[in-house]
Specification:
D-Maltodextrin-Binding Protein, domain 2; 2 domains; alpha/beta; single chain; about 375 residues; about 30% helix; three-stranded mixed β-sheet
Length: about 375
């Protein structure tokens, strides 16, 4: 069979039109949930679109809303920094631990100096027991010899590990610190909305200082608060704001304040991250290396839910590291949509996600975490 020149021209035009048109399988996804992961998700949008042709919109609403939206099938995927164990969780939804990062204790102090806070001191500050910056406990934390651990890092800035998966220590160093703390009240800023960050932070407080922070973890900071948050001495001094950006904004506007959020939010709003003590007696900074050292001591159950070892004696472990869960469907009614969500999860796990730059504070999932994430993602969209 032969084609005329005119027919050939039409055929060529058709090929060009098909090759330049947007593929029919392109999917626009919607997600919601934890604000902790929002900076990473926003930074990875362009790369994901380029590699897959799919796009997504993510609304930073807090882990509590992410769980509720997963229950109600609102959107395509959801993030939560705390495990969704409520009876409302649908059986087809599971946890994929695919993002890790440190929660930083952030301060707004006039002096541009490193600040060191023991875990017990932090618990007493957020519990309302320590109310001034020149309290003897804070003075003692910052006028002493402190030991820090320096890890070897790979080309991406993440901690390098040996064949057994242990962080490789370059050196341990000790220095003398001096800090004249101001005689000013401490303004505590907490997450007012349902928050996985609050859940992890209060779990850590209860784990490292159980005699101070006597209540168990909760997505609601006020529920986990060990005393009476409405006590007259706390009114106006311990205040809340919604979402990570909200508390970072409020803390940045409030001199002598302290709060907790993913380190990225502190960097964006000019807040200083504290060095925090661990069970080995060292002070560690919320960077990817120290957080990786801590998460290497964590364990996971069959559903991907992580348990942390706050008492680890790994010298350089930053014990306020967390894993954020992507809540995804096992069964998507729309298979093309489910396939696009799976591609997104795999993209975030890969080094191609630009937000995984170590300087941003997020950590590339590796080792047993990566194996578990891949195992769970393989169950998607059956």
């Amino acid at each position: 069979m032969k084609f005329s020149n005119k027919a050939k021209a039409f055929a060529i035009a058709a090929v060009i039109a098909i090759s330049t048109a947007t593929p029919a399988q392109a999917v626009d996804l919607t997600g919601s949930g934890a604000s902790f992961v929002d900076p990473l998700l926003q930074s990875c949008k362009a790369g994901f679109n380029k590699s897959s042709n799919h796009s997504y919109v993510y609304t930073s609403t807090g882990s509590g809303t992410g769980k509720k939206n997963a229950d109600a099938k609102i959107g395509d995927f959801w993030f939560s920094d705390s495990a969704h164990t409520a009876t409302t969780k649908r059986s087809t939804v599971f946890h994929a631990p695919i993002i890790a990062a440190p929660i930083a204790v952030l301060v707004n102090l006039p002096a541009k100096k490193d600040i060191y806070l023991s875990s017990t001191t932090i618990a007493k500050i957020f519990a309302g027991e320590i109310t001034k910056w020149n309290d003897p406990a804070i003075v003692a934390d910052n006028n002493r010899s402190v030991t820090t651990t320096v890890y070897r890092k790979d080309a991406s800035g993440n901690v390098a590990k040996d064949k057994k998966g242990n962080p490789i220590v370059l050196r341990t160093q000790t220095k003398r610190t001096y800090y004249t703390l101001p005689n000013m009240p401490i303004k505590v800023v907490f997450r007012a909305d349902g928050s996985g960050t609050s859940n992890n932070f209060t779990k850590w407080l209860n784990g490292v200082a159980p005699t101070v922070w006597t209540k168990p973890a909760n997505d609601a900071f006020t529920t986990a608060f060990p005393g009476n948050i409405n006590d007259p001495q706390n009114i106006g001094r311990i205040v809340g704001a919604n979402q990570s950006q909200g508390i970072a904004t409020l803390a940045a506007k409030t001199p002598y304040s302290i709060t907790y959020a993913e380190k990225n939010w502190g960097d964006a709003y000019g807040l200083r991250s504290a060095y925090v003590s661990n069970a080995a007696g060292n002070f560690t900074f919320p960077d990817s290396a120290a957080t990786s050292a801590f998460l290497g001591e964590a364990s996971q159950d069959a559903n991907g839910i992580v348990s942390y070892n706050y008492g680890t004696k790994v010298a350089g472990a930053y014990t306020l590291g967390i894993v954020s869960y992507m809540l995804v469907e096992t069964e998507y009614a729309d298979k093309s949509r489910g396939a696009a969500v799976k591609q997104l999860a795999e993209y975030i796990l890969s080094a191609d996600c630009s937000g995984l730059d170590a300087k941003a504070g997020y950590i590339v999932i590796s080792g047993t975490f990566l194996a578990k994430a891949k195992e769970l993602l393989a169950k998607m969209n059956k």
